[in-house]
Prior knowledge:
Layout: H1 4-31, H2 35-67, H3 82-113, H4 117-148, H5 150-157
Helix pairs in contact: 1-2, 1-4, 1-5, 3-4
Amino acid sequence: MASTTELLSRSVAGLNGLATVFLLMGYLRIKAGDKIGHGKAMGVAVLISALFLALYLASKVHLWVALGRTNILYRPEVGLTWDKLLYYVILFPHILLAIVVTPFIVRAVWLARQGRFEDHKRLTRWVFPVWVYVSVTGVLVWAFMEFSGSLAAVAATVK
């Protein structure tokens, strides 16, 4: 059976993937001229992303309580390898962009709810691709940790 650490990590990745699906659905709906469908899909994407954030923070608390740290290192037993370099090349922009884009997502939702669609459209031209990038790379970061054995190695140390 999977540990709490693994379950939280997989759930966070799954929510990232699901958010991506709804983001793309929302994009396709607005391109088809379906404003109502777009609003519904994007609303679900926002809710899933909020749930993601709550679970992500819970996973950090879990790691702190279980191990006294909030991060899992990628393959700490080896030096710099091509996969480790690629992992960090994906991870660092993912973290930075996730922090930067979040208030702009809130702003985009607020603009849409206020009926300020031209302002919403202008903002989402760059917010949307960044949000998709963050969602997709979140799944990639998880995949690196899962399939390298880094996640399982830490999970085995958690009581």
